[in-house]
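dumping this here before i forget
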Amino acid sequence: MYINKLLLTNFRNYNNQMIEFNNGINIFYGDNAQGKTNIIEAIYLSSIGKSFRAKKDIELVNIQNKELAIIETEFQKIDRKGKIKFEINDKKNIYINDVKAKKISEVLGNINIVLFSPDDINLFKGGPIKRRKLLDVMISQLRPAYIYNLNQYLKTIEQRNNYLRLIKYENKSDDMLDVWDEKLTEYAEKVFNYRKEFMDIIKEKIIDIHKKITQNNEIIEINFISDCLNKDEYVRNLRRDREKDISRGYTSRGVHRDDFIIYLNGRPLSIYGSQGQHRTVLLSLKITELNIIHEEIGEYPILLLDDFMSELDNKRRESLLNNIDNTQVIITCTEKMKVQKGKEKIFLVNNGKIY
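structure:
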C-alpha cells in the first residue's frame, strides 16, 4: 500500500500544492512552522477521517484565504487504486472514488497508517487517554464497526451522566438509570471484546520484537485494565456505585477508563523506566502495530514519522529501518537526512511550498 499523490488546496498554510511520492522513503525537511506536519496531518485525515491535532475541522482551512479546503489523496493497494477527497469549510464532505460518503466511518480501512509523533514520547507517562486513542485508531482501521460501537457507548455515557445530574439537582427518580445501564452494558461489552482481541495480539507479538531490539536484555509485559471484563459483573458494579455516581454527577466505571500498563523485567515502565527505555518500548509498540496491520490486510500500512527520527539515537533508528521493508515511509525533520543511500525522495518545505 502506498500513496501516489497528495493535492492540497487552501489547507493549513498551503494554497495549491501537489506532491508526488515514491513508494519507499519520502523525507520532508525544513525549519519549524513551515508546513511539514501539515502533510502528515492531511494523510492522517485521509485515513482516519479526522485530524490528530485539530479540535475543529475549520482549523484546517487556510487562515488567509478562508475558502473551501480540499485534500485529495490518491493511493494504490495490492488489488486496486483509490482516491479519498475531503472538502472542508462550514461542514465536511467526503468522497471515496468520487462517490460521496454518507458517514465518516466509510473512510476507515481504505488507507492504513501508523503514526509516530513527538507527543508519543510521553505515551506511558501521562494519563490513559492517549493510550486508549492509540488502541482506538489501530482497531478502527481494521474493524470499522468498532468505531460505531465506541461512539454509541460514549453517547450513552453522556446521556447517563446528564441524567445523574438531574437526579442530583432536580430529584428525578433513579429508576430510569436501569435503562441507561442496560444500553451502556451492551456497547461496553462490544468495545471491550474488540480491545481485548487486539490487546491479546499485541501482548503476544511485542515480546519477541522487544527482545530483538534490546538484544534479549529486556522482557516486556502488558497488563490490560478494564472495568468490563465480565458483563454481569459490570452491571453489578454500576448498580453498586449508583449512589456514588449520583453524588459525583458522572459514571465512574466503564470502558471509557480502560488502560494498559507496561512492565520491563517485572517493573512498571512509567515509574522505573529511563527516557531511553520509553523510546525503545514505543518503537516496539509501533513496529508491533505495523506487523498486526500487515497480517490483517496482507500489506503494510503507511508509516508516518512526524519529527520523530530526531528522538531516536542511531541504534534505535537502525532498529526501526530494519523493520520497515516494503513499507512506504513519510518522514518530516528539520535537517536534510539520508537513510537509504540515495533511494529516498527528498523534499524541501519552505513557507507552505514544497520543492
